[in-house]
Amino acid sequence: MHPILSSRRRLLLYLAVCLVFGTLLAGFVSYAGGATLEWSLAFAVPLAVVLGFQSLAVWYLARRLPIDDTSPSRLAASWLAAAAVNVSAWTVLGLGWMSMLIGETTERTAAAARIWPLLVLTGTLGFFVAVLGHYLLDAFERSRAAERLALELEVHAREAELRSLKAQLDPHFLFNSLNSVAALIGTDAVAARRMCFLMAGFFRKSLALGRREAIPLAEELYLAEAFLAIEEVRFGTRLRSSFEVDEDALTLAVPPLVLQPLVENAVHHGVAHLIEGGVVRVRAGRRGDRLELEVENPCDPERPQSRGTGLGLANVRQRLEALYQHRAALEVEGTDDRYRVRVLLPVAAA
User: Fold this and answer.
1) Same domain, 220 and 102
2) 84 shares its domain with 217
3) At which of 132, 150, 168 does a domain end?
4) Using CA atoms, how far apart are residues 242 and 297, in angstroms rounded to an integer?
5) Which of 83-87, 96-100, 283-287 ranks highest by mean pLDDT?
6) Domain carrying residue 32
7) Percentage of the chain modeled with pLDDT above 90
8) Model-level pTM greater than 0.85?
9) Domain count of the chain?
10) In this structure, are 114 and 195 located in the same domain?
11) Domain boundary at 122, 150, 178, which?
12) Is residue 179 included in any domain, yes or no?
């Protein structure tokens, strides 16, 4: 469908341009032909509207003759032929419309002799203005189509990246959890069994939430608490947790499983290396136009280098970049005895 006809706003604007053109043509007719302004308006305005709709066909020819992919000779021949047909048809129509307005009088022949050169001139001018306008419109439409395609490709690429990152995250957590169960089986079978039940509930909940693009912070905190409950079976009193969460932040949106890798790191790379254990502190609150999530844990400055695959923080960082680009951030602060990870997200309701 013609882009002007597909939008009511564009159509009304196009009709306004035709009316302005018709008014100018009426002025020329009145001046050159000696007719009254009322008669000139009655003659020129309908003709201008007809020329406007007649020129809409230029769009389809402009699409078939792109400037950057058509030889100059073919362009010139095609548009000159189209102009001859268009202007001839409009001139004949204009003379017929003039005869209807004048009626059977002796002045009709003289009036036609004065009017037809003006019709040819203005018709030719209007046609080539329409050609230029349609080429500009075609360039605009192609540019918008290219932008839409680029945006769609970017969205698809980000969705594929997110699916890949989520696929990495779940096996990573499962691998570490199964290692924990294996460590307990030989020393405390009851605790290992309890841990298996807790893990089943955790995975059931996390898989349901993982299918969603965003969840309320309250549900994400539930997963973090469930994970810590699983780990407390293994570590006993060595592992303790603390949650400091602002009430007004509980309904804000976060990506699923954004806290769990941070809490997991706090346990396995922090508390696990301390004989006396420690407290994993989770804080959340709104800070202006951002939601701030923070996980803090004690650490042993002389702990051995981790042999893990390092997917936790890297996964969270990549997910944030894919979802929010520069609107989100992951900050890491480490001292000799403390380790803190802070996630900043744009505020959005879940």
Assistant:
1) no
2) no
3) 150
4) 10
5) 283-287
6) 8-150
7) 21
8) no
9) 2
10) no
11) 150
12) no
- pLDDT value for 170: 56
Please check whether residues 56 and 137 belong to one and the same domain. yes
* Both structure tokens of 134: 């349609």
Which CATH number characterizes residue 296's domain? 3.30.565.10
> What mean pLDDT comes out for the span 34-61?
85
C-alpha–C-alpha distance, residues 293 and 254, integer Å: 10
For residue 157, is pLDDT > 70? no
Residue 252 is encoded by which pair of tokens?
């804000």
**CA neighbor of 320 nearest in space, from 150, 169, 153:** 169
Q: What is the pLDDT of residue 309?
A: 41
Backbone phi, psi, residue 71, to 5°: -65, 145
Rounded to 10 degrees, the C-alpha dihedral 161/167/169/172 comes to -140
CB within 8 Å of 127: residues ≥ 6 apart: 55, 58, 82, 83, 86, 87
Tens of pLDDT, residues 251-305: 999 988 889 889 988 998 899 889 899 999 999 999 999 999 999 999 988 766 6
Same domain, 212 and 329: yes
Residues 95 and 19 in one domain: yes
Does residue 111 share a domain with residue 226?
no
Q: Do 191 and 336 lie in a common domain? A: yes
The C-alpha atoms of residue 43 and residue 101 are separated, in whole angstroms, by 8
Q: What's the pLDDT score for residue 282?
A: 96
Tell me how many degrees the CA angle 36-41-43 measures, rounded to the nearest 5.
95
